Amino acid sequence: MVPFTKLTGVAASLPQDDVDTDQVLPTPWLRDPKADLAKGLFGYLRRAPAGKTESDFVLEQPPFRRTRILVCGSNFGCGSSREHAVWAIKAFGIRCLIAPSFADVFRENCLRNGVLAIRLPAEQMEALHAAVQSVAGASPFVVDLEERRIVYPDGRSVTFDISDHEREALLLGLDDIGLTERHLSEIERWESTSRDSLPFLQDFRIAPFDPSNKPSQ
């Protein structure tokens, strides 16, 4: 996973509430393991049924085709728990989502895939949407995870909250397994000492499943 430290890039505004994962990545893109997930991102919102692009949709407008930061409405990522939705967001090049709230599973999927999902209060979100729309992709925003700060093109900034555990994982580019492996020497030391202090653990065995061994009536 690529570490996330500081992101500078175009921000786009998608203020609709309750955008679910089927809108983020429609089902047809789940059926083909070789599907272009970047193309599938908001596939039905970006394209008419005949395949023509919908020029009114924000990511189809020229200033926002290289969006790196997406400013969203509340309850973003609700619906199914498909991790592919986050893969599509990342494939498009978006590394940061900002919203008043996210579906819990969706946000966890974001963090596990190196996408920073920031929650901000409603009043700060309103100001951020207005700022993003006013610059219309002409000036970049900065998301600084080390400082826990979002910097507007005019120099204004707002801070955001994120747990130390989530922040560390993103800064280092590690998932839960990677974070655990950082303590491998301590784990191996405990296993070594436990052989003497907890010998009963060493002899513990689980009998293999035998379907013919039915319990008596």
Write a brief structural summary.
The protein is α/β, with parallel strands linked by helices and 217 residues long. The chain is built from ten helices and seven strands.
Mean pLDDT: 90
Question: How far is it from the N-terminal to the C-terminal residue, by CA?
Answer: 53 Å
Question: How many DSSP helices?
Answer: 10
Order of helices and strands: EHHHEHEHEHEEEHHHH
**Low-confidence spans: pLDDT under 50, at least 5 residues?**
none
Biggest pleated sheet: 7 strands, mixed
Sequence of strands across the biggest β-sheet? 4-3-2-1-5-6-7
Which term fits the overall shape? globular
* Structural category: alpha/beta
Q: Which percent band covers the strand fraction?
A: 15-25%
- Rg over CA atoms: 22 Å
Oligomer: single chain
- The number of E-state strands comes to 7
Helical amount: 25-40%
